[in-house]
Amino acid sequence: MPAIALSACILAASSNYGIPVATIEHVIDSGTKQPGAIGPMGIPQGWLPYLSRYGFDEQKVRTDDCSGVVAGTWILAYTQRMQTVIGKTETDKKILQLAQPWMPAINWISAKAQIDPRLVVAVIYQESKFQPAAVSGANAIGLMQLMPATARSLGVNPRDPAQNLWGGIWYLANLMRAYHGNVGLALAAYNAGPGAVSRYGGIPPYRETQDYVPQVLHWYRSVSYAKN
């Protein structure tokens, strides 16, 4: 790929993911020296399953330099944010304590919707910390922070906790099915909307969404939830 075109990819990736151009260029200079590394940024083979999970085309990452730069920059942003997430002070015990009163309803609805209740708990914790009366600045409502338009489309009253859970869990389950079990894309769509995921061909480069997805995945993967 010509140097000018690669520079444009670097600038775009830097703007999308908030990683300095100098950092990307440094990785490019050093990454290609690693045996078996992929693309200009020297992506380790082990990252390919994660990239696929987050909506990247593995073949393009392998063969297209620009796609390799974008994927490599996303990895830098992801790992930086994961370090922040892992350093948070919330504990598994706290999440369990907050979730416990709601677990019978979460488990029952999740079974109906065929979705892992642990993912539901992770989303609720991130969205509202299990506060049924929570209302965001964008007017998202309740435990699962349903937008009024989304609640109307689901036929639920978002201010009723039981209906909020029912609508939110089914909405999340439907997103999981729409994205063929790709948790990263489903979470991105839950946060930013399916239109944004479609428009960007993956997790949108919105700072909120870029933070949201790894945070929810962290809660999902690291916490064992009670079943009763």
Describe the overall structure.
By secondary structure, the chain is mainly alpha-helical. The chain has 13 helices and no strands. The relative contact order is 0.12. The model has no long low-confidence stretch (mean pLDDT 85).
Short summary:
The chain folds into two domains: 3-86, no CATH class; 92-222, Lysozyme. The chain contains 13 helices and no strands. It has helices at 3-17, 21-31, 48-53, 58-63, 65-86, 92-99, 103-113, 117-128, 148-154, 161-178, 183-192, 194-200, 207-222.
- Name the shape in a single word: elongated
Total count of strands: 0
Q: What oligomeric state best describes the polypeptide chains here?
A: single chain
Order of secondary-structure elements: HHHHHHHHHHHHH
- What is the CATH top level name of the largest domain? Mainly Alpha
Strand content: under 5%
CATH domain fold name of the largest domain = Lysozyme
Instruction: Please report the distance between the alpha carbons of the first and last residues.
Output: 56 Å
EC number: 4.2.2.-
GO molecular function: peptidoglycan lytic transglycosylase activity
Enzyme class: lyase
Pfam families: SLT
Offer a few descriptive terms.
228 residues; mainly alpha; Lysozyme; 2 domains; elongated; lyase; Transglyc_AS; peptidoglycan lytic transglycosylase activity; Membrane-bound lytic murein transglycosylase F
SSE layout and pairings?
Elements: H1 3-17, H2 21-31, H3 48-53, H4 58-63, H5 65-86, H6 92-99, H7 103-113, H8 117-128, H9 148-154, H10 161-178, H11 183-192, H12 194-200, H13 207-222
Helix pairs in contact: 1-5, 5-13, 7-10, 8-13, 10-11, 11-12, 11-13
